From TrEMBL:
Keywords: Coiled coil, Membrane, Sugar transport, Transmembrane, Transmembrane helix, Transport
Transmembrane segments: 41-64, 367-391
Segments forming a coiled coil: 251-295
Protein name: Sugar transporter
Range of residues in the leader sequence: none
Organism: Rhodobacter lacus
InterPro entries (UniProt xref): Bact_polysacc_biosynth/exp
Length: 395
């Protein structure tokens, strides 16, 4: 009777034992202590080789070997003075000054060109200024070719240009503050010379056409005066019209005297002793009139139409000379106006920051260089480590 009653309890106990046995074998044993493996040693070694060692070497060079660098700054802009004409001043339309961006762009490119390096090198010995045997990383070295000098120039000379305002600021680095200031002064002077040349070229272009017209007018005037001079030398007559008028006056006077003498002779009695004297005077006057009339044809030959030909030629030459004089005056006025207009638009270099003399070395920025280098090396090492583990996981 007891056996059937205890059967369910025994059955439950057996199930509990089986469940406990299963749970016992489902729990894993605890993990063993991590051990330093070869790949860990290689990873740490690569970090030391790629990151730590270069950073230590760079820090030693920057703080123990690299020399201080002094900065000199200069700032300027290209300005253009435009004086207004009288009409604009009366009308209230004035523009006293303005800037020209095209000249500033040209100057910005010129400062970074080989020509600027050559020009500054003529004033300041760049090979001597930038040479520093104890600091090979920041020194120009011994290669004096213009390409090498230009590459080092762009490292030591920074040009900051604001196209919206047209302002240019230049920062020059050198191992001595006096050298940096000398270079900025040379850059400022050379930039001013460039702007002056550009301004002179612009004035020459603006006045070239007016100058050509003035030269042509001067040539015409010279030719006209030379032709008139040759005519006078050839004909021995300064002014044929004045000569004709003078001779006509003499001839008219002789005609009046002839008429008066003939009247007196007619009114005189035939036996008057003065009659012979009047007759002689009458003959002299007639001969004089004949001589004066013959003078009209004695310019180059004895033809009676030569004087008229000379007068016609003289009048043509005089007209040419008068036209040449008027053309010359017009061309001269146009040239003077063009020159005045070009001078009103002259360009110049306005310096708002004169070349400065540094008192404290600002460069090289050691901590910034070291921080950037450390970050780049860490990123490089991280990328290489990820590439290594990605290739290892594929195997």
């Amino acid at each position: 009777m007891n056996k059937p009653a205890n059967a369910p309890a025994a059955k439950l106990t057996g199930l509990a034992l089986k469940a406990r046995h299963k749970i016992k074998f489902a729990v894993r044993p605890p993990a063993s202590v991590a051990r330093l493996k070869r790949r860990h040693i290689l990873l740490a070694g690569s970090f030391l080789l790629i990151v730590v060692l270069p950073v230590l070497v760079s820090a030693f060079y920057l703080f123990a070997i690299a020399n201080d660098q002094f900065a000199s700054r200069v700032g300027f802009s290209v300005r253009r003075e435009e004086g207004s004409s009288a009409v604009e001043l009366l009308g209230g339309i004035t523009q006293l000054s303005g800037d020209t961006s095209s000249d500033t762009d040209i100057l910005y490119e010129y400062i970074q060109s080989e020509e600027m390096v050559r020009a500054v090198n003529r004033r300041v010995d760049l090979m001597k200024v930038f040479a520093n045997p104890g600091d090979p990383m920041f020194s120009i070295g011994s290669d004096g070719r213009i390409e090498k000098m230009l590459a080092f120039w762009n490292r030591m000379v920074d040009v900051f240009y604001d196209s919206s305002t047209g302002l240019i600021e230049i920062r020059v680095l050198a191992f001595r503050p006096e050298d940096a200031q000398a270079i900025t002064t040379a850059i400022s002077d050379e930039s001013s010379d460039v702007i002056n040349r550009l301004s002179a070229t612009a004035r020459e272009d603006a006045t070239r056409y007016a100058r050509e017209e003035l030269d042509l007018a001067i040539g015409r005037l010279k030719d006209a005066r030379s032709a008139l001079t040759r005519f006078r030398a050839r004909s021995q007559i300064v002014d044929p019209q004045a000569a004709v008028q003078g001779r006509m006056g003499i001839l008219n006077n002789l005609q009046e005297q002839l008429a008066k003498t003939m009247i007196e002779l007619d009114m005189m009695a035939k036996d008057d002793p003065r009659r012979a004297e009047l007759q002689q005077r009458l003959d002299v006057i007639r001969g004089r009139i004949a001589d004066e009339r013959s003078e009209f044809g004695r310019a180059e030959s004895a033809r009676p139409d030569d004087l008229a030909t000379l007068i016609n030629e003289y009048e043509s030459l005089a007209i040419d000379q008068s036209f040449a004089e008027k053309t010359y005056l017009s061309a001269l006025a146009a040239y003077d106006g063009a020159v005045a207009e070009a001078q009103r638009k002259s360009r110049y270099l306005a310096t708002h920051i004169p070349p400065t003399l540094a008192e404290t070395a600002e460069f090289p920025r050691r901590w910034m260089i070291l921080g950037i280098l450390t970050g780049l090396l860490i990123v490089t090492w991280s990328i290489l480590a990820m590439i290594y583990y990605s290739l290892r996981d594929r195997r």
